[in-house]
Amino acid sequence: MERVAAAVVIDAQGRVTGWSQGARLLTGRVADEVVGRPAAELLAGEPPGGVLAAGTGILTLRHREGHPVEVAVTVCPVLGADGAPAGHVITAGPTGPVLVGEAFQQASMAMSVLDLEQRYLYVNGIACRLMGVPEEALVGRFYTDTVEEGEDTRGFVRHLREVAETGRPVRYESFTGAPALHRAHAWSIEMWPLCDGSGEPAAVALAAFDSSEQYWARRRLALLNEAATRIGTTLDVVRTAEELIELLVPQYADFATVDLLDWVLGADEPPAAPRGGIELRRVAHRSVVAGNQGAALKPGESEEYLPSTPPAVALREGRAVLAQAGEPAFDQWLADRNARSPEGRPHREGVHSMIAVPLRARGITLGAAVCVRKYHSDAYGPDDAVFAEELASRAAVCVDNARRFARERDTAHALQHSLLPSGLPGQAAVEVAHRYLPCGSLAGIGGDWFDVIPLSGSRVGLVVGDVVGHGIQSSATMGRLRTAVRTLADVDLPPDELLTHLDDLVSHLASDGTGEEVAELGATCLYAVYDPVSRRLGLAAAGHPAPAVVLPGGTAEFVPMSAGPPLGVGGLPFEATELELPEGSVVALYTDGLVEDRDRDVDRATEELRRALGAPADSLEALSDDVLKAVMPEQPTDDIALLLVRTRALGADRVATWDVPPDPAAVAAFRQAATERLTAWGLEEIAFVTELVVSELVTNAIRYGEPPVQLRLIRDGALICEVSDASSTSPHLRRAHAYDEGGRGLLLVAQLTQRWGSRQTGSGKTIWAQQSLPGG
Q: Do the beta carbons of residue 16 and residue 34 sit within 8 Å?
């Protein structure tokens, strides 16, 4: 129907006297066909009464081709010169109510009109289909009589009442079902008042648009955003997998699993892609049913998936795979589940849809996630596949980060474990107990270390140090420093000199040998030497906390000493401190992780350490545990190393000392004196070798050294022969020629003894040689 306006003039006798172009378009009749004819002949049926008197109304015309044309007319009377009625002018056009009615009925959304008592007045076709009944079954009935009672119904009625009472429109969203639908939908609902001529609400109209597609798109986007904060909160592979399924169930799935390839949970490199079935290990699963009773595998169990099953296809092709009940792949997968776990079969009945998606990160396949729907009525569709791939890629990055962290941490632990002393040798000089605790920080293990180094003359070196930072780099640096300390200790450097050489080494490490400064490398170290013969402890520190000493029967006190600059600063001296300790004193060396923590006061923690060390304990091992229990932070953020030593003393019955005059003729007397002492010690078996060693070392000291010369024998775990003189020149082995009169003495000593060497002293040097005891 064309949107045209027509004008017709009718005289007082009811004949047409005027016919407009619009009338021709509206009816298909030209003016010659109608002018002069009665206007009633143009109507289809009897004219409704009262139209002329009312001035407006609806008329149905007969088109020239025979079909009716409903028009809305406006009637204006025409008066003659004498003021008497002379006819009418009628304007007409297509009826608005007809078009509006068609629009209402043919709308693509559910539309209804209810009166103020919430009775149906009009219902369009979509609304009838949603309600599952024809219009005649709804019109005149109360809304609440046509739906089930529930929160959604009460909310709907509440909004209807609000519009009726306030006269203001309402717009809101609802997620609910409808009588003729088998599942809930998302609806965008708008209600507005229909007012009468006085402007008062006479009815309420509403329109409901099915926005389920937009709703689920928003939900998927919200889940992706939520995943950014909920997945990957820890660097733990299993926990990361659990966070993924906690996000999926119940919002996206009724049951979900995460299965990983075995190598992801270990320290191996990714293997080549398998050609046949794929074996996966269950890491985490979750169900809307308590107890995960429909799960075929328990966490930790593994299974080989057949090549045709959705998880295997997803891993092989690197994409999300959808499957629904009735499809061969789905049925095969479900049959495998039932065969593996028959007791869970009742909980799998009704499962109708699944999606398997690979977990891939940085081009590496880690495993697969599987989502299953049973209570969700919608099957997974293409949009879900896109969403699952996006979510899986984010989760896979978190899993891979956790895997890489675990691998690096395990490597660092293994490296550090290999560098730390696995078992400290028995020492006559000290009794030792030690503890090493890696931190629980995500930054990884640090570079703390300790060591007990046997030295000549039954002395012992005690070391504790800390490299700044965490991870493999710190562990590797710690290993280099520990090796350097052992090397420097082997040449019997005093503590302050040893730290000076170690400081130079750290400076070279920091520059990486290129002359260009790189990332700052910091380290602290404390080195101490204890002599059980003199009972003296000499020590020096490079930026390290001072040790604590507990005298027998006394309280713990910290050694007053200069901490010195940390290693790597360079150019600053280190100061040595020396003190004499009675036998049975306990010396505690530790790293700063024991007393320093961001959440507590260092002075208070240090005082707690002092009290814990002074508390009575049955043994050093028990004291070590007591100290950690009393002082260690609840959540250590740094590694902790603790080394406790209890000093011992070698009494006069185990040490023999002689002053040697600078006369070669006196050598024989000292050989005899040494033999007599060995006899008193019950060491006659090694007397012959000892005589040769004493003869060579004393002769060399008289001949090449400077007085005073002293000979000392120490019976410890081995027999140690020491000859000291005032010269600082160290001897060395050389090959004597056939015609040389000398040069064979040290070579002979080296061949006859277990070890030999020299060390510098404050007054010169000491040459020493060590022999194994009989039966040792």
A: yes
Q: Measured between alpha carbons, how far is 461 from 540 in angstroms, rounded to an integer?
A: 12
What is d(CA 773, CA 776) in angstroms, rounded to the nearest whole number? 5
The per-residue pLDDT for 736 is: 40
The H or E element spanning position 454 is strand 449-454
Q: What is the distance, to the nearest Å, from the Cα of residue 775 to the centroid of all Cα atoms in its chain?
A: 58
Render the burial of 169-179: b for 16+ CB within 10 Å, e for the rest. Answer: ebeeebebbbe
In the numeric block, which tokens belong to residue 617?
A: 């304990």
Q: DSSP for 80-149?
A: -TTSSEEEEEEEEEE-HHHHHHHHHHH-SSEEEEEETTSBEEEE-HHHHHHHTS-GGGTBTSBGGGSS--
Peptide bond preceding 708 in cis form (omega within 30 of 0): yes
Measured distance CA(18)–CA(752) in Å, rounded:
147
Measured N-to-C along each axis, helices 495-511 and 472-490 cross at an angle, to the nearest 10 degrees, of 140
Whole-angstrom distance, CA of residue 112 vs CA of residue 191: 10
Cβ(126)–Cβ(46) below 8 Å: no
Q: 449-454 and 430-437: which strand pairing?
A: unpaired
pLDDT at 462 over 90: yes
User: Is pLDDT of 95 > 60?
Assistant: no
**Looking at the chain, how many residues does it have?**
776
Helices 382-419 and 472-490, packing angle to 10 deg: 10
* pLDDT value at residue 258: 95
Spatial separation of the C-alpha atoms in residues 388 and 368, rounded to whole Å:
11
Residue 1 pLDDT grade (very low, low, confident, very high; cuts 50, 70, 90): very low
Q: What angle do CA 361, 366, 371 make, to 5 degrees?
A: 100
DSSP 55: S
Alpha-helical runs (H) found in 305-381: 310-317, 328-340, 345-348
What contacts 591, CB < 8 A, 6 or more positions away? 448, 464, 465, 466, 544, 545, 638, 639, 640, 641, 642
**Terminal-residue alpha carbon distance, the chain:** 121
Q: Provide CB contacts within 8 A for 380, sequence distance 6+.
A: 322, 324, 353, 354, 355, 371, 373
Q: For residue 515, is pLDDT > 60?
A: no
**Axis crossing angle, helix 667-680 with helix 687-704, rounded to the nearest 10:** 150
Question: Identity (one letter) of the amino acid at 187?
Answer: W
Instruction: Express each pLDDT in 627-642 by its tens digit.
Output: 999 988 777 777 888 9
Residue for token pair 């270390």: 449
Encoded tokens for 622: 């028990």
- Taking residue 442's Cβ as centre, other Cβ atoms within 10 Å add up to 12
Give dist(CA 547, CA 544) in Å, integer: 9
Q: How far is CA 598 from CA 11, 191, 595, 604, in A?
A: 105, 59, 10, 13
Residue corresponding to tokens 């320290």:
267
CA–CA–CA angle 391, 396, 397 (5° rounding):
105
Measure the CA–CA gap between 520 and 504, rounded to whole angstroms: 15
State the Rg of the chain over Cα.
50
Contact 90, 42 (CB under 8 A): no
Residue partners of 463: CB distance under 8 A and separation at least 6: 449, 450, 451, 452, 453, 482, 485, 489, 525, 526, 527, 528
